[in-house]
Write a structure and sequence with these properties.
Helix content is 33%, strand content 19%.
Length: 207
């Protein structure tokens, strides 16, 4: 059974292009893997708290030395990391906000970026420890970012691919529903993005 996490981060809820595109990816995954388990993490309805001083202190101290305050502060991060490591597939729905990622999604990434758990440093340099996952990015933006002059302003795709790759998730496919504010483009962008979705026949051999 495939375990799938769907992360959504748009304030527009069900009307969001990125959320709808992510749901379409999930639907195609469920056709291929009908017994899959899907966990939805809506970072707007249930936001990840900002990393606190107590949480950072807990990150750099053995768990058996944690105070009650540290245990409470690190609880969200511990649960998020456990959930991530247990998953097979990650679907992240994210709109491009002010040329970058939503603050709510950045906060979630801060919680799952844990030295010694999701990455580590060695003499050879940094090594991502979250391996064997397939990641799909469902992205949206008001301008056309997949081609033309605004392509240079897409900091959403490279940041997410870079950050996830740093953690070991290098098998990442991005789909865009862009130009959502552009007449003559916005009317068909979501459908075109959905039609472009391709699910690998065998995810068992994921890198």
């Amino acid at each position: 059974m495939k375990k799938i996490i769907h992360i959504t981060s748009s304030t527009k809820g069900a009307a969001s292009f990125s959320t709808q595109l992510g749901k379409a990816i999930i639907e195609k995954l469920q056709i291929q893997y009908p017994d899959s388990q899907v966990i939805l993490r809506d970072l707007i309805a249930d936001p990840a708290p900002y990393v606190s001083t107590g949480e950072v202190a807990a990150f750099f101290m053995p768990e058996d030395q944690h105070t009650e305050e540290m245990i409470k502060a690190a609880a969200y991060s511990k649960a998020a990391v456990t959930e991530l490591l247990d998953a097979d597939i990650l679907v992240i729905s994210a709109p491009l906000i002010n040329l970058s990622i939503p603050a709510q999604l950045k906060s979630w990434l801060d919680h799952i970026t844990r030295s010694g758990q999701t990455f580590r440093y060695s003499e050879a340099g940094p090594e991502g420890l979250v391996k064997g996952k397939k990641v799909f990015l469902a992205l949206s933006g008001g301008a056309v970012y997949t081609e033309g002059p605004m392509q240079a302003f897409d900091f959403l795709t490279p940041y997410l691919k870079g950050m996830l790759g740093f953690l070991g998730m290098t098998d990442t496919t991005a789909y865009w529903a862009d130009g959502t504010s552009v007449p003559g483009w916005k009317e068909t962008t979501l459908e075109r993005a959905i039609q472009s979705i391709s699910i690998p026949e065998d995810l068992e051999a994921m890198a």
